[in-house]
Amino acid sequence: MKKERDWSGLHFGVDYYPEHWPRERWETDVALMQEMGIQVVRMGEFSWHKMEPREGEYDFAWLDEAVSLLGRYGISVILGTPTAAPPAWLVNKYPEILPMDRQGRRRGFGGRHHDCQSNPVYRRYVEALVTAMASHFAENPNVAGWQTDNELGNSHGDLCMCPSCRRSFQGWLEKKYGTVEALNQAWGTAFWSQEYNSFEEVFTPLVTVTGENPSAMLDWKCFCSDLVVEFQQVQIDIIRRICPHHFITHNCMGFADKVNYFDLTRPLDFASHDQYPGGYYGKMPFEDNVRMAANLDMTRSFKGQSFWIMEQQSGMTGWQIMGRSPVPGQLAAWAAQSVAHGADCVVFFRWRSCCIGTEQYWHGILPHSGRPGRRYQELKDMIGKLSPHMDALWGSIPRAQAGIVFSYRQEYAIQIQPQHPDLNYVTQLLKYYGELHKRSIPVDFVEDTGELSRYPLVIAPLQYLMTNALAEKYFSYVREGGTLVLTMRTGVKDEHNICMSDRELPGVLGDLCGIEIPDYDCLRDVNVKVSFVGEKEDGVFFAEKWSDIITLLGAEALASYEEEFYAGAPCITRNTYGKGVVYYIGTEPSQKLLEAVMNRVLADAGVSGIGSADEGVELNIRQKGQKKWIFAINHTNQEARYQISDGAGCKLVSGEKEGLLQPFEIHLYQKE
Ligand code: GAL
Ligand code: ZN
């Protein structure tokens, strides 16, 4: 009897495209995979035409052959549904499945994701193909699970504005608002004569002559996210029904914004993520290490559980132009970083650099020649070191000390009106994340509907859209003893993206923060000097992008402005409320200012890191029951040192010398 949805023994894999290579080569590849410790292969996610060369004519023989060859070498398979690449025969027959951009132009065939995800005809073909594929592989003992489509939302920046999506949007709005009067009210359509007499009059947001309605845009972005979630659900329903023994996952992309990943991953067995620390087209990673770590913590946070990497960088990146080459040791350190943040399995993209198509320069473990070289050896060594521990690590995650509130709605609203031209929601969150990360404090990203009370510290930047329920959540979190950080641009708008007028900023949260903000300044091309009140702090501090000109109503001022017409006004405040403390940071603090404020925040919250380390060294913890594993990873090409705070009982189970890391070296400790 087959065990239901068991993927616990799979830890390292590759993405493989047998259809790109001569049949005679396959066995050489598979033998090399086995030799390096590969246990799982993902396949199929772009090969619709190979599976259905003509309408209704399914051909899975080639895939059967690949699956059984892998099986003979003890390697399991994840099948991707190939719905990211509809074939030419389908697009020619139904050109209306091509997506329409904001200019109203249909995009053409020849890339990928040239599909409209609301189109009913397209959905029919997707359903038929997924049904045929699932039925064919349901009982194949070598198939472990499924990936739906590929990076849903990717390539869909401003798609799709077609008539089918227009009808879907109208239906979505009708369900949400019930009456067109309610829609007019929520969108503030009295402005510029935008009233609608019926839902059928509403447009998709094609490019306008000038300006757009912020409320309509917010609903549009939420609709697009829901559409992608629904598109995936169609496939999930089919696979669940036909393949109850298989797991289902999807490869997300960290902070990509098109679809709400909390929603997208809810019906999945686990979340997966595609991790490219070398960046797209070569931004070197050193400056991006914080974002890479955050990507992984974000992925873990989607479902609050361990996850997979479905694509881990395995060489230089590039399409038309290329990024720099990862230096020896670096690919292994990046892969270990994924494990350290909670990946149970790391699948490398791709097995071999491709000789055909768009991605010829997105390098694989093997070079174009197919001969194993330095990347093969390096990753093989890394797999050899971590493999003995992966079964035990399975399912473990850090017990995070801090939660950073992440909301796609807040992000969308800030994208629609950034206010300051350089204000970016994710970048703002990552500033706070970076302060915790460098102190080796484990962090979760938490939805604003999620449970806050399990974190001694909650940081909630840019709480721009506010509802009574969310405000009450923050009140009760602090009342019960939490330490909360709120920032500039909080409580500005209601849930429909309309400015609130009943109180001064930050609205009802003013009572929690003990402040009021009757006036503010947008810092265009200027920073404003700030100083600490009372206690002396070393350094020169600045407010960047924004100044909230705060009036104290019970809070204490921690820092105040030194310049401009509001010199002397508080810029950062601290208030006690119930059993807790709330900080209000009325600006984007310069690096030094943020560091100094965070020192106080962390002291209030009683939160400290798992250790200290030289710059470029990352310390991470995974826990399961009473067991703990601590990782130390050197992301630099220099020797580096670190120290674990509560090292008592820690046993080094992989690595050489406690506390001292060679360039790109990885240490793993275990503690019972
Ligand atoms: C990912 C995608 C892969 C491949 C890779 C390199 O985003 O899922 O299919 O395109 O990037 O470009
Ligand atoms: Zn469409």
The strands making up the biggest β-sheet line up spatially as: 11-10-12-13-20-19-18-15-16-21
Overall 3D geometry?
globular
Major beta-sheet overview: 10 strands, mixed
Low-confidence stretches: none
CATH architecture term of the largest domain: Alpha-Beta Barrel
Bound molecules: beta-D-galactopyranose, zinc ion
Rounded mean pLDDT is: 96
Count of domain modules: 3
Give the helix level as a range of percent: 25-40%
Number-wise, the strands total 28
CATH topology of the largest domain: TIM Barrel
The CATH class label of the largest domain is Alpha Beta
Radius of gyration (CA) equals 26 Å
C-alpha end-to-end distance: 34 Å
Q: Looking at the chains present, what oligomeric state does this protein adopt?
A: single chain
Q: Specify the structural class.
A: alpha/beta
How large is the count of helical segments?
A: 17
Taken as a percent bin, the fraction of beta residues is: 15-25%
Fourth CATH level, the homologous superfamily of the largest domain? Glycosidases
Organism: Candidatus Acetatifactor stercoripullorum
Keywords: Glycosidase, Hydrolase, Metal-binding, Zinc
Pfam family, one: Glyco_hydro_42C
Active site: 151 (proton donor), 311 (nucleophile)
